[in-house]
Amino acid sequence: MHVNSSIDMSTLEEKTGRNYISHSAMSTWLNCGWSYYLTRIQKVSENPSYWLVGGKSVHECTEWFDRLKPELQSIADVDVRAVFLNYWQENYRMADNGMPFRAGGRASKQYPNKEDAQWWQDNGPKMFHNWIEWRRQENPYIPYQLSGGDYAIETELNVEVGGVLMKGFLDRLMVSPEGELTVIDIKTSTKEPASHTQLGTYAVMCERTIGVRPTKGAYFMARTGELSTPVDLSHYTEKRLASNLRGFKIAIDNNIFIPQPGFMCGTCSVNHACYAVKGSESHKYPELGESDE
């Protein structure tokens, strides 16, 4: 039997069904090209994860709070657990595809199954509480008001850079106590990202779509309730972003999907379909140009 012996030379849009690039797509490809190929092009069924359900729920909780009237934000007695569980239940239902859920973190005496559903139901509300406390602090960061009157809260950004369309969702654009326009991304992970590329990318996109250029960027670490040290974003330019996007598109158009086996493979959503780790279903997705005769 001959399987997948020819190399598909269709374009990114034809391969993925999307005419745009996102930061998360580029990150997936940079971390592991084969994971990108399996998830974005082959559309392999993915094992859902508790952390994606939990992270999405925390984001939706913070948006719910930030869209309250300002006078209510300072006095409202928020039942953080009830609000979180409401979003959690819906997001869990949507994520459940019958495949086993992946759990992050480490096993402990209290949570022997690592950061599973119970862990998130206990700790997700705490992360939401941390956001509320941070927003209520003295001299707080204030959401930036857009020209139409709405605030820059979970704002969709669509912009063409270097002839390539890019889409992103900006968690927050806020004004610091010092008056600096700041890109803020909410993270529910344990560690702060080592790179600020996401923040810089959104700064460029803000300038193009909103008409203002954020000067700083920071991560709100929901587990601790602390904002990372704001960093300067001036060196992230549209020219550099355009170069990255063009390079990414060229790679996808030319079927450059290189696997990157490592410690993250154990929690990958498609490791069952990956030949690099001898996944149980990897025979269904041979290497490009590989034949099975």
CATH architecture of the domain at 143-242: Alpha-Beta Complex
User: Which secondary-structure class do the elements indicate?
Assistant: alpha+beta
Number of helices: 9
CATH topology of the domain at 143-242: Lambda Exonuclease, Chain A
Principal-axis shape equals: globular
Query: Spans of 5+ residues with little confidence (pLDDT < 50)?
Result: 1-6
Number of distinct beta strands: 8
Helix content: 25-40%
State the major sheet: 8 strands, mixed
Helix/strand order, N-terminal first: HEHHHHHHEEEEHEEEH
Roughly how many Å is the radius of gyration?
21 Å
Average pLDDT works out at 92
CATH class division of the domain at 143-242: Alpha Beta
N-to-C terminal Cα separation, in Å? Answer: 5 Å
Percent of residues in beta strands: 5-15%
Write the layout of secondary structure elements.
Elements: H1 12-16, E1 21-22, H2 23-31, H3 33-41, H4 50-66, H5 70-73, H6 80-95, H7 117-135, E2 142-143, E3 153-161, E4 164-175, E5 181-187, H8 197-209, E6 216-221, E7 226-227, E8 231-232, H9 238-253
Parallel strand pairs: 1-4, 5-6
Antiparallel strand pairs: 2-4, 3-4, 4-5, 6-7, 6-8
Polypeptide structure, described:
The chain has 293 residues and is α+β, with helices and mostly antiparallel strands. Among the domains are: 50-136, no CATH class; 143-242, Lambda Exonuclease, Chain A (Alpha-Beta Complex). The chain has 9 helices and 8 strands. It has helices spanning 12-16, 23-31, 33-41, 50-66, 70-73, 80-95, 117-135, 197-209, 238-253, and strands spanning 21-22, 142-143, 153-161, 164-175, 181-187, 216-221, 226-227, 231-232. Strands 1, 2, 3, 4, 5, 6, 7 and 8 form an 8-stranded mixed beta sheet that branches. Strand 4 (164-175) and strand 5 (181-187) form a beta hairpin. The longest helix is centred in the middle third of the chain and has 19 residues, at 117-135. The radius of gyration is 21 Å and the shape is globular. The chain starts with 11 loop residues before the first helix and ends in a 40-residue tail after the last helix. Mean pLDDT is 92; it is low at 1-6.
